[in-house]
Design a protein that fits this description.
globular, alpha+beta
């Protein structure tokens, strides 16, 4: 199965609006039992989350995983930091890109692949306001062309 494929549970749509995504990497996550149950129920948000690298390990912060309704006192903290499972070589490449080129690491989507929860992270560079306006113009022009083509077909 290709990376980024599987049952998509949550997407960060704002990331493609705010950043140019240069490269994507698939990462596993260290989760507790109630967290994976909530994620399988698609009770997860990536809106304000980001990836940081500390002590040679990748961590995702501000990813909100709702508490499991049937969980008892062993329920998890919804905003806790979660460790990402990446190879040492991948982490060193991410560190080099972030330090050298001014890139940032953005979570793109969470999905289930072969029974495991995976996180697709992207190496991204920030867009300027004029880039965002240009993208919106292109998207609107494409919609107008498709609409005109559809009307012509009928």
């Amino acid at each position: 199965m290709a990376k980024g494929t599987g049952k998509v549970l949550a997407q960060n749509k704002k990331a493609s609006h705010d950043y140019f995504i240069e490269e994507t990497i698939e990462a596993g996550m260290v989760l507790t039992g109630t967290e994976i149950k909530s994620i399988r129920d698609a009770r997860v948000q990536l809106k304000e989350s980001y990836v940081s690298i500390r002590d040679g390990e990748a961590w995702i912060r501000n990813m909100h995983v709702s508490t499991f309704e049937q969980g008892n006192r062993f329920n998890h903290d919804p905003l806790r930091e979660r460790k990402l499972l990446l190879h040492k070589k991948q982490i060193s490449e991410l560190i080099g890109a972030v330090k050298r080129d001014g890139y940032t690491i953005v979570p793109l989507k969470i999905y289930i692949k072969d029974g495991y929860a995976k996180l697709l992270i992207g190496l991204a560079k920030g867009k300027k306001d004029y880039d965002k306006r240009n993208d919106m113009k292109q998207k609107e022009a494409k919609r107008d062309m498709e609409r005109a083509f559809k009307e012509r077909q009928q």
